[in-house]
Amino acid sequence: MELQAFLITFREALEALLIVGIITSYLKRVQRPEFNRYVWIGALLAVFASLGLAIVFQVVLDGFASMGAETYMKVSIMFISAALLTQMVFWMAEQSKGMKDKATSKFDQFITTGNVVGMIIHAFLVVLREGVETVFFFAAITGGDIGKAMQGWGAIGGIVVAGAVAYFFFKGTMKVSLSRFFQVSGFFIILIAAGLLVQGIAILQDMHILGSVMPHLYDLTRFLPEHPIDAEHFIRDTGTTPWFSGQVGIFFKALFGYSSSPSVEEVMVYWMYFASLWLLLRNRADKKQAAAAKPSPSDAHTAK
After folding, report:
1. Residue 50, by phi and psi: left (phi above 0), alpha (psi -120 to 50) or beta?
2. Membrane spanning segments where (predicted)?
3. Which tens digits make up the pLDDT trace of 273-296?
């Protein structure tokens, strides 16, 4: 869970810091640094609003728990989070092209009209979007205990590393390109999304909402139990110790969606997700290459 929280906060905080950094750098370049404080005011207000949202969301989750509908809420959050994380991957595939133009286009109007309120609101909404997504993802990876994710080293570490990356990026000392960072983090985001998707399927099967043609396709508990409790049960039933600790299983479950005894549907959904994502990304890349290779009207006229 800590690694998941780290990757999520790193990704969300990095995007927010990059956009805020682009805006403040732009204001400095056009010799209007006096507006920077309004950008940071909007960003700080969004941070406090995100914390408030986390509290409200936790109250809502607790309300569902008191009504006996907590599991349905958790499954819904898992599926929605998997969809949002997948959307992140497509954004990362763009390698942040156009980020600078999108971030600064509105500020030209704000500077011209001196619209301070507009600057604050724009910065507020940019950062709040990342905060909302973070709260939602934390609810998914912790099963509804948002505070648990916020108190661990993962959330704090993700913010610290994102801040360091953004700082060195704008100082011009970053050796690795920003697009490479998004590619690497995108790979781990895919793993988290696939894991949430499969965990949601498993919960629905445990609730007998979904059936299974083969409830246990294989059993790797002897090799790697997915939880210390599974390891204890295995030792109790067989008198032998698994090859690896259940703590290792927890790590792989959090990162890869590992299950020591999955149903055939879980395995199929897991690998179909990767195959579908690969096909969609490849199709998008092929379309871009085709568009780039297509001569523009002006080039065609010159050739004639």
Report:
1. alpha
2. 6-27, 39-60, 72-93, 114-141, 153-170, 182-204, 268-285
3. 989 888 887 887 777 777 767 765
Two structure tokens written together for 194: 């696939």
Q: Which residue is it, tokens 């508990």?
A: 221
CA-based nearest residue to 35, from 152, 114, 109: 114
Number of domains, the chain: 1
Q: Is residue 126 part of a domain?
A: yes
Dig out the tokens for 128 from the structure: 């709040």
200 falls within a domain = no
- What is the tens place of the pLDDT at every residue in 155-170? 788 888 888 888 877 7
- Which structural domain, as residue segments, surrounds residue 80? 2-178
Does the predicted TM-score (pTM) go above 0.70? Answer: no
Low-confidence residues of the chain: pLDDT under 70: 1, 64-69, 91-107, 114, 143-144, 172-182, 254-255, 292, 295-304
Distance CA 83, CA 94 (A): 18
In-domain check, residue 156: yes
133 is a domain residue = yes
pLDDT in tens, 136-159: 787 777 766 777 777 777 778 888
Cβ neighbours of residue 178 under 8 Å, at least 6 residues apart? Answer: 18, 95, 96, 169
CB 86 within 8 A of CB 193: yes
